[in-house]
Write the C-alpha cells for this entry.
Amino acid sequence: MEQTISKQVNLAQAIFTGISLDKDGYCGCPKCGCRELLHDGSTLDNGYILCLNCHYSINGNDPYEMVSRWNLINRESFQLKILF
C-alpha cells in the first residue's frame, strides 16, 4: 500500500517527535511516533510495552530493562518513497 507524501511526512514528524522522553521516561513508538503506550511490568515472568496506535510491542521479564530497550530502539530508520 503506497503512502502519500503528506502521510509519510506526518509519520516522519511523529517519529522524530517521539525521540525525546515524556514525563514518565518513555520515548514515543519507534514505528509510528505515538505516545499512547500500554506498559505492563507488574507480572513476575513477563511484561510488555505496547503502542496503542500501531500495536508495535516489545516484551521481557525486567521492566527497567524493557524501558531502556524501548528508548534505545532507532527512531530515525525509516524511508520515504518520494512520488513524482
User: Anything to note?
Assistant: Strands lie at 37-40, 47-51, 57-60. The radius of gyration is 14 Å. Residues 5-72 form one domain.
